[in-house]
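User: Teach me something about this protein's shape.
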Amino acid sequence: MKKNKTRNKKVSKKIENKDVDPFRRMQSIFENNIFLHEVSIKEIGKHAQKYDNENINPLMEILKNKIGKGKKGNKKKIKFSKKELSGVHKVFENIIKTQPLQGHLFSKNTIVSMVSTLDILLSKLFSFYYEKNPKKLSLENQSIKFGELENIENIEEAQKFLINREIESLLIEEGLNRKLQVLKKDMGLNLDSINKNLEELKKLIKIRNLIVHNEGQMDREYIKKYGDKTSELNKNIIVTDKYLNDSLFLLYFIGTYIIQEAQFSFSEEIKKKNFLLINPMHYLVKHEQYHLLRSIYDFVLNPKISASERKYIVINYCIGLKKQGRKLEDIEKVLMLEDWSLTRDDFEMCKSALLDKDQEFYKYLKKVIKAKEIGLEEINTWAIFTFHKDKQEFKSIVKNVKPL
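Assistant: First, the predicted structure itself:
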């Protein structure tokens, strides 16, 4: 279940304005970068693969025809005529001319670009923190050399110069562990729930570094930490489509989780704020990344979350449980932990769908459609409706629904 969209109000960019949530802005920029990568993987990646297939298919046809001539189960060596060898040679020649394979090149470039989106996010978070706490800068970045003063006119510019130098050091010279130390110890963010995910992130960053600095080939450290029986020194790391997509979901989850924790840590300074992980939770459910939902569900215990936000979290978490085939009694136990005494028709509709109470679900579905709380987009995109989309009564109720 996804929160309904609201019109964005024009606000000042100054952090001092308590009506502004700078973390909401960070999330919007980060989400846009993630979604652009998602489109890129679907569209450009598909064309890169098609380009490679056009080069390889002639070779595959020769092999297929040759193998097809032999008897089924025959393990004898395949022999090629001079004419066939000439054809194979031409295909290989064409492949060599177009090396590296476009699909492989696209995957490597995408990994580098995706990890950079997290660097951009961390840069904004560190900038926000050090602007408010300049005394927390490392000792080496609390001083300015005489030569550097030539381009600095006042205290504000000096502070900005030192902060930028600190962030540059963190992003370029320091590893992920140092960045996490700043987030956890200096900024006070609680990231314990995603420690396992951070280990996966370290692997992704290692692959990115090998792509940038070692032509995407395995080194001893990579083999020791992440290798398997097929791993060899200086062997190319193969980035599969699945790993590419899973890495994108991982980055989106970790990035938005960190933003949410930062918002909570500095929430006293923000008057108008919303829980930032509801729409990401909906996105992860949509893409069947159910293993990432538990850490978000744990936020229901946080007193800074409103009652309606808790219900959004519980419903999306239960959708994930139902999608994984968990028993109704397990889902009901989770739902019963939440107070539903003061609830809404859309929440009651979702509860009914999760507990297979069809007639109750249809009753509330009609209500929310009539009240124009949901429209065609919600019908087509909310995961809660996937449990009934093939049922005739559901189709009959939603057939005339129009966009809001």
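Now, about its shape. The chain has two domains: 22-68+78-263, 307-398. Residues 6-16 have pLDDT under 50 and may be disordered. If you'd like, I can walk through any region in more detail.
User: That's plenty for now, thanks!
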